[in-house]
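Input record, target 12 of the design panel.
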């Protein structure tokens, strides 16, 4: 799964050589990981990935609020981060994958 994620961000990635957990997200709803990858060219690249897994159905109002916040963040990275990165405001979102199950 990590290799697929890395290759969606950079198709030249041949393998993931290490995965380091950087932080856990609110209420255990995911994590931020550092993926160290080897490219087909032999170069090494690091990708920071945020993996989010919200309970479905939400267990509480807080879960719904957190899920909505993550949805806003995903929308920003998929729709606006390239322009913001060009202005050096934030990093560029390379890949956003969403489950649109509204149940």
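The sequence produced for target 12 reads:
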């Amino acid at each position: 799964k990590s290799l697929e994620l890395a290759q969606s961000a950079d198709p030249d990635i041949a393998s993931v050589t290490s995965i380091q957990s950087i932080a856990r997200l609110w209420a255990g709803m995911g994590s931020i990981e550092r993926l160290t990858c080897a490219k087909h060219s032999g170069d090494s690249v690091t990708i920071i990935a945020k993996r989010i897994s919200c309970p479905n159905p939400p267990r509480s109002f807080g879960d719904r609020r957190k899920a909505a916040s993550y949805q806003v963040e995903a929308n920003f990275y998929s729709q606006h981060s390239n322009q913001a990165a060009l202005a050096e405001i934030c990093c560029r979102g390379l890949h956003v994958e969403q489950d649109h199950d509204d149940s």
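The beta strands are 13-24, 30-39, 44-52.
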